[in-house]
Amino acid sequence: MAINGINSYGMGYYNYQASINNMRLTQALANNSRLTRSAFSSASSGNNSLKSSVNFIKDYSSSMSDLMSAANELRTANSKGVMTDMKVTSSDTSVATATEKLTVKSPKDYMIDVSQIAQAQTNVSGSVKGSDKAESSMDFVVNAGASSVNVRVSALHEDGTSKTNIQMLREAASQINDSSANVRANVVTQKDGTATLELTGKYTGKHNTFNVSGELGAAKGLENVQTEAANAKYSVTENGKKTDYESGTNDISLDHTRIGVTLKGTGTVSIKADVDAEKTASALGSLVDAYNSSLKLLNDNYDRGSGVDRQLRSLVQGLGSEQSLEKLGITVNKDATLKFDKDVFAKNMKENPSLTKDLIAGAAGIADKAFNKASSGLRVNSGSLINGDLSDMQSESFTNPYNVFSMYSRSGVYSLNNYAAVGMMFNLLA
């Protein structure tokens, strides 16, 4: 006797028998504990696979973003990156110090020859024994151009007793310092007990002078100039061109006020604006770390999809020739990861800064190559990153009997004929 449905005539009876066979097969599968466990296990595995794929896409995107960010820090196209953040230095801080006042747009190199620094006028009184009684009162004027002060100090206390010389000098200094005159006063005492009164102009430059006149008392000799007010005299050499300058102050500027320089003494000093070697080394180390991290992620997941495999091949092609990388202190390991030696980089940066910077941020430098690889990786279709995973999950779904009957039950009784039903019964139950 033939199994119902195979040789039956009439579409109604055919569909009826197909439905009965589907129900019987479902009941049989439900009573088979081995197949039931397998089906639920397969469904759980499918969910885990999907979650794993989604997590990988997130990790991949984060890894490529980190690599692109690390590379961008070293690109000249980044106006706020380390390669465009100039550090101003002085070769001899005893001659001049330098700071960045405004953004320095490109490397600069100046040679400054200081023949004279700007000075303020200084007057010093003769020495007197501080503990001796004052012989006379003080009544003198310190005239500093538009500002002046009249100093009056009595030689006697209110009770009629005599003041000492040191008391007279200190009162005079206090009156001067409390005034608006552009002069500062200071009482200097020595180990032998002698004391002097010193006056110093608040500002440097040959036009900032002052004079003292009147009854000086214990400050006798204060009218005499010890140090004359003077302008700074220096020359600046840039690109082989030397220019002489004179300034009333020791605070000067270079590169259209972008670099501030303070003259400290006579001599020759080099003022440079260039990339910060320490910051560059740190950024280069971060780029190597990001590259290695991305390479490991791709290598560990290369079989998830064709997009991963392509991006992995792109990265292992490297960021430059081994010779070029070695000049940056970077060596290539056997597994294609990179190793960075900060000391080697620092040495090459000092000996050949132009070449080293070009290898990092030049047109074919390591920064642009890494940036472009990461940027291209972010544009990869996410489906291609896990098309291998999707293929496995799809295959698993079609071999899972519950998924098959669920699919056909949603499609209707016409979707699964008796031939298919009987075939599956024999395959699964035989």
Task: Please provide a written account of the structure.
By secondary structure, the chain is an alpha+beta fold. Helix content is about 45%, strand content about 25%. The strands form 5 sheets. Strands 1-16-3-12-13 form a 5-stranded antiparallel beta sheet. Strands 4, 5, 8, 9 and 11 form a 5-stranded antiparallel beta sheet that branches. A 3-stranded antiparallel beta sheet has the order 2-15-14, with no helix packed on it. β8 (about 185-190) and β9 (about 195-200) form a beta hairpin.
Give a concise summary.
The chain has about 425 residues and is α+β, with helices and mostly antiparallel strands. The chain has 3 domains: about 230 residues; about 70 residues, no CATH class; about 110 residues, Immunoglobulin-like, CATH 2.60.40. The protein has 13 helices and 18 strands.
- The biggest beta sheet, please? 5 strands, antiparallel
How many distinct folded domains? 3
SS content category = alpha+beta
Ranges where pLDDT stays below 50 over 5 or more residues in a row are 1-20, 22-27, 34-44, 408-416
Describe the secondary structure blueprint for this structure.
Blueprint: H1 11-30, H2 33-72, E1 86-90, E2 96-100, E3 108-116, E4 122-124, E5 128-129, E6 138-144, E7 147-153, H3 165-177, E8 183-189, E9 194-201, E10 211-215, E11 225-227, E12 232-238, E13 241-247, E14 251-254, E15 259-263, E16 267-275, H4 277-300, H5 306-316, H6 322-327, E17 330-332, E18 338-340, H7 342-351, H8 353-361, H9 366-378, H10 382-385, H11 387-399, H12 401-411, H13 418-429
Antiparallel strand pairs: 1-16, 2-15, 3-12, 3-16, 4-9, 4-11, 5-9, 6-7, 6-10, 8-9, 12-13, 14-15, 17-18
